[in-house]
Amino acid sequence: MAKHPIYGLMAEFDNTHDLVAAAHRVREEGYRQIDAYTPFPVEGLEETVGFRLPLLPVITFIGGLTGCIGGFTLQYWPNVIGYPLDIGGKPYDSWPSFIPITFELTILGAALFCVFGMFFLCGLPQPYHPVFNVPRFKLASHDRFFLCIKSKDPKFSLDETKRFLEGLNAREISIVPV
To answer: Of 27, 53, 70, 157, which one has the fewest beta carbons inside 10 Å?
Structure first.
């Protein structure tokens, strides 16, 4: 795969209908390294662009499970193994008394894994992104919709991809420099 001095090509659209139709055509044409930028969520766009199943629920579950096991172990080991005390004839492993702390650490673990997992999956912090080099991209937070085909796509060819994007009812096509 050859290195390209550009990040990709970006097409600007006036409405969501044109953007979703263009994204469908781009996927049908065989491009897989694409991304869309919109000022608000557009229903059905994530499937069209090709986002995979979200990993955040799995990461959150693992965090909650880690917190639960850690909270129970944190209480079980000192009370049963490390330093057992016979207080009033109560059993050492009185698990109902362990529930509140186990529950709290389950929530804490899930929340922390969720926040840091979200940062990791979103690639944050990211103070720079190549699409910010396109002057018209500032309209992505107002009223314009953008579709970017990345140059690392195996099917990407600057001339052919630009010709293809021009046929998709795009308002403007921009080269995104690295």
So the answer is: 53
* Distance, CA of 5 to CA of 153 (rounded, Å): 14
CA distances 90 to 63, 96, 102, 176, Å, are 32, 12, 20, 70
Question: Residue 25's domain is classified under what CATH number?
Answer: 3.30.70
Specify the 3-state DSSP secondary structure of 89.
coil
Single out the residue of 32, 60, 59, 71 nearest to residue 48, CA to CA. Answer: 32
Q: Are 24 and 155 in contact (CB under 8 A)?
A: no
Tell me the residue range of the domain where 165 lies.
6-53+136-177
Residue 19 lies in a domain: yes
pLDDT per residue over 9-57, tens digit each? 999 999 999 999 999 999 999 999 999 999 999 998 988 898 877 899 9
Q: How many domains does the chain have?
A: 2
Distance, CA of 19 to chain centre = 21
Residue 2: predicted pLDDT? 53
Residue 131 resides in a domain = no
End of a domain among 75, 93, 122? Answer: 122
Cβ atoms of 59 and 113 closer than 8 Å: yes
Distance linking the first and last C-alpha atoms of the chain: 17
